[in-house]
Amino acid sequence: MVTKMKKQATLGHALIPMLFIIAALIFTMQFWGGDPHIPILMAAVVAAIVSVFGLGYTWKELEDGIIDTIKMSMQALLIVMIIGMIIGTWILGGIVPTMIYYGLKLLSPSIFLVATVLLCSVVSLATGSSWTTAGTVGIALVGVGIGLGMNPGLVAGAIVSGAYFGDKMSPLSDTTNLAPAMAGSTLFEHIRHMTYTTGPSLIISLIIYGIIGMKFANNDLDTSAINEILTGMEANFNISLVLFVAPLLVILMVIFKAPAIPGLMGGALLGALFAFIFQGADMSSIIEAMHYGYTSETGITVIDDLLSRGGLDSMMWTLSLILCAMSFGGVMEKSGMLEAIARSILKLAHGTGSLVLATIITIIGMNLMAGDQYLSIVIPGRMYKQIYQERGLHPKNLSRVLEDAGTLTSPLVPWNTCGIFMAGTLGVATLAYLPYAYLNLINPLVSIFYGFTGITMEKLPEAEAAAAA
Question: Which DSSP category does 31 fall into?
Fold first, then answer.
């Protein structure tokens, strides 16, 4: 049996599927109103055609590459499923409503912008979703800020900063699970490592918002929209500080390096227990919330929009998108096309700092070109994983960079799905809030600074570094 000689992939080969996926995503999402799944799968088909007819690979080899890539993301896929269950039981159990309730109590004119960031951070941490945060409390906060005479772009920037802080740091977020899966890290070590860049970025942002907010200290605060939410929460849930036990346990799991899957499953079961004890839910309601999510029927639109979510089924859209992206990434990686792109970029990246800079530029480029934050994590993650290992860098450095740039810059691009959603939901143009989304702007710069200084850039153990070299 004669084995067909394979060619080494060049940048020219790699650009064919890359340009196709960019064009397909733009036309499908911007003009035809579709989701990214089909164009990504079609791009995988194009990549496979280039690999078979241009580079000499067999379909069996490419299929093995797809399966191997999906295997690497299996832990993240399982966690995403469990997260859907957690969200359902945590809402039914009153845990999420309690966090939102006490967060809204923080508001006052003198610290409105700071409180907005913190409140959106809490809601996003609790729900794992920046979109849900912006689409509910974010809308109310824009109205309050305008009532105080603030620039809508400034208020929206604070909302986006808080929403994406929580989205980035929450173990319930899909991107927070996707990034370590792509880089070869684990969920909780990824979250711990992100605190080194995200923590200082948040503090700097809060200081800036605090200084800006001082001039509004004497303005009157119109709290009618906020009070409506507070009253609705009190009427429909048993609000108690005891319910903070659940999120505190999740924080402790991160600190003490507990295994993610059993730990998060425990969080889902704790939510079910709280639903039974504090909210009087029966087993039928608990199972329904776990499987299909919680449906809020308070009659208050903003609360119903905020709390009607979660459940195992709610994560299927995300799971299918991840599988589509893994298929494309698997073909690109197996055929060597991702390596060809990385080689071209890394000709100028000789040290750790320039490697981090090159990674961030690639990630932002994907957000600009592909218009989807998932691809800005998946493709650069697969491109740079081996290179970080060869340079003796722990995978959690790469997973952190993926989120520092991928998750946080996605809402700053007007044609990105995140930018479109934020602008449409908040009623403020992307370019109007971009200069005020301080966390999203500062975090990638902090990440680059750490890369060049070596701060918190953890090395692989010597044995693993030697094996990777």
Answer: I
Q: Name the residue among 136, 95, 453 with its Cα closest to residue 242.
A: 95
Domain boundary among 315, 336, 364: 315
Name the strand (E) or helix (H) holding 152: helix 152-169
Residue 4 inside a domain? The answer is no
Task: List CB contacts of 275: < 8 A, sequence separation 6 or more.
Answer: 89, 92, 93, 94, 281, 285, 286, 289
pLDDT at residue 225, as a whole number: 72
Q: How long a stretch of residues is the chain?
A: 469
Q: How many CA atoms lie within 13 A of 261 on its CB side?
A: 7
Whole-model pTM over 0.90:
no
Determine whether 222 is exposed, middle or buried from the number of CB atoms within 10 Å of its CB (0-12, 13-18, 19+). middle
Identify which of 30, 47, 14 has the alpha carbon closest to the alpha carbon of residue 370: 30
Whose tokens are 């966690």? That residue is 79
Q: What is the pLDDT of residues 378-396, one digit of tens each?
A: 888 888 888 898 889 999 9
Q: Which of 281, 315, 349 is the last residue of a domain?
A: 315
Look at the alpha carbons of 53, 59, 65, 71 in this order and tell me if their dihedral is positive or negative.
positive
Q: Which segment of 154-158, 189-193, 307-311, 459-463 scores lowest on mean pLDDT?
A: 459-463
Domain range for 444? 11-56+318-416+433-468
